[in-house]
Design a protein that fits this description.
There is one protein chain. With about 280 residues, this protein is of the alpha+beta class. The chain is about 40% helix and about 40% strand. It has three domains: about 60 residues; about 80 residues, 2-Layer Sandwich (Translation Initiation Factor IF3); about 100 residues, Protein of unknown function (DUF541), domain 2 (Alpha-Beta Plaits, 2-Layer Sandwich), CATH 3.30.70.2970. The protein is built from four helices and twelve strands, in the order αββββαββαβαβββββ. The strands form three sheets. The chain has a five-stranded antiparallel β-sheet. Strands 5-6-4-7-9 form a five-stranded antiparallel β-sheet, covered by helices on one side. A two-stranded antiparallel sheet has the order 10-11. Helix 2 runs antiparallel to helix 3. The termini are far apart.
Length: about 280
């Protein structure tokens, strides 16, 4: 009786184990099927993308000659880049003038600085500089320290007053610097020559016009050489347009002896270069 009961328990337990094993096998089988299906889908998508890229690449023909590019795709287009550089005399100058004074107290440093800067401004205005040409002013008072024996001690104060000058009277830059220094300025720098807004706008328009003409000439030459017909413009865009000011240092200023034995400062403004470039795309047939 007992043995029959044990055989029955063993049979039921074996059946449960078998069912679980078969369920696990079925689950694993379908999981592997899903993985294989996903891999197949990814493979098909990759093949389609590669085929599309190959077809597109085969439909494009590019010719690169200097800064001219011909691109022949399904829309049959030609793209060229035209550039032009203009040289001009600057009509505007910028420079900085600074007065620095030192004293035992901050008030004394300020008072001395104020007297000297007033003298500098009057000298510049008497020389012909306009008040409106003083475009920026900076001012600071800071302590001076002496570090000794592990102690940082204030031994005085420095007052600094700076002016930025922007003028179209570029022939007078040397005179402005001379009278400012004689009146009390002890630092001059930031000298640069450039273009006024009006002149820059005028030269910019001219440079873009010539750049467009250059692009047109190149496009016609390339189309003729390639044996295609040049059509209408489908796109035109502006590239770089601008210039860099001419910078001068005080060391470059050339003292010119005068009959009165007082040297005069002469600073050559030089020449500025303004460049422009454009990109034009034409239809071709």
């Amino acid at each position: 009786m007992i043995s029959a009961i044990l055989r029955d328990i063993a049979r039921r337990y074996s059946q449960k184990i078998l069912k679980r094993y078969l369920s696990y096998k079925r689950h694993t089988y379908w999981e592997k099927m899903k993985e294989n299906l996903n891999l197949n889908v990814i493979l098909v998508v990759a093949i389609v993308v590669i085929a599309l890229v190959a077809v597109y690449s085969a439909s494009i023909k590019t010719t690169n000659i200097g800064d001219v590019i011909i691109t022949q795709a399904t829309q049959e287009s030609l793209t060229v880049t035209g550039s032009y550089t203009l040289y001009a005399n600057p009509d505007e100058a910028n420079f900085n003038i600074e007065v620095e004074t030192q004293a035992k107290t901050a008030i004394d440093a300020q008072d001395e600085n104020s007297v000297k800067m007033d003298s500098v401004k009057k000298a510049l205005l008497n020389e012909g500089l306009k008040t409106s040409e003083i475009v920026r002013s900076s001012y600071s008072v800071r302590p001076m320290y002496n570090y000794s024996g592990g102690i940082n001690e204030i031994v005085g104060y420095t007052a600094t007053h700076g002016l930025t000058i922007k003028t179209t009277n570029i022939d007078s830059i040397g005179k402005y610097i001379d009278v400012a220094v004689r009146a009390g300025a002890n630092d001059v720098g930031g000298i640069s020559f450039g273009l006024s807004d009006e002149k820059e706008a005028e030269l910019r328009a001219s440079a873009l016009k010539f750049a467009a003409e250059s692009a047109s000439t190149k496009a016609k030459s390339m189309a003729d050489g390639a044996g295609v017909k040049l059509g209408e413009i489908v796109q035109i865009s502006e590239g770089y347009v601008g210039y860099s000011p001419v910078y001068r240092s005080v060391a470059e200023a050339m003292p010119v002896p005068a009959p009165a034995a007082t040297p005069k400062t002469s600073i050559e403004p030089g020449t500025v270069e303004l460049s422009a470039s454009i990109s034009v795309t034409y239809k071709i047939g």
